[in-house]
Write a structure and sequence with these properties.
Largest sheet: 6 strands, antiparallel
Radius of gyration: 18 Å
Strand order of the largest sheet: 3-4-5-6-8-7
Number of helices: 4
Strand content: 25-35%
Length: about 160
């Protein structure tokens, strides 16, 4: 009987892990989103979808860029598969200097880890990348955040490595 209960618990945990999404700027990464629908795009705050083709991987998806700042970020984009699965959300926020950018980076990482620590790993199904940089033309600092499914991140990486 105990063995049966353990098997049921493991199966239930596996199903829950697969269905658990992560949210960024009101978009559920791992969920679904119909970016072909103008009302949906308006609700999310993004423009028309642009088709992106990863030629080496033979993979196509849509990218929608933000129409206005949201949630403290200056710009963001949503990547969605052609079957409406949200593959990732990327965003950036401008900072007055590199010190502020580094502090902002730390806060962003802490917030995501506090909320989604169990899902932000290869085993959890999602990857978080937070980086600082500076615009070469203006010298202004920024923080860039990418939250994506590990499968999508892997597909893009494979595609880009084939280009070399």
């Amino acid at each position: 009987m105990k063995r049966m209960m353990v098997m049921v618990a493991v199966a239930l945990a596996s199903v829950m892990a697969l269905s658990a999404t992560v949210e960024f700027l009101g978009v559920e990464v791992g969920g679904t989103l119909d970016v072909q629908d103008a009302k949906v795009r308006e609700k999310v705050g993004v423009g028309e979808p642009v088709t992106v083709v990863l030629a080496n991987e033979k993979f196509t998806y849509w990218q929608c860029d933000s129409k206005a700042p949201k949630g403290g970020y200056d710009e963001f984009g949503v990547m969605v598969s052609t079957n409406k699965a949200v593959l990732g959300v990327s965003a950036s926020v401008n900072c007055p200097d590199e010190k502020t950018a580094a502090e902002k980076k730390g806060k962003i990482i802490a917030e995501f880890k506090a909320k989604y620590a169990d899902r932000l790993s290869p085993d959890g199904g999602y990857a978080l990348t937070v980086a600082t940089g500076s615009d070469s033309a203006t010298g202004k600092a920024y923080v860039e955040v990418d939250l994506e499914t590990t499968a999508f991140k892997s597909t893009v990486a494979r595609n880009n490595n084939l280009d070399k």
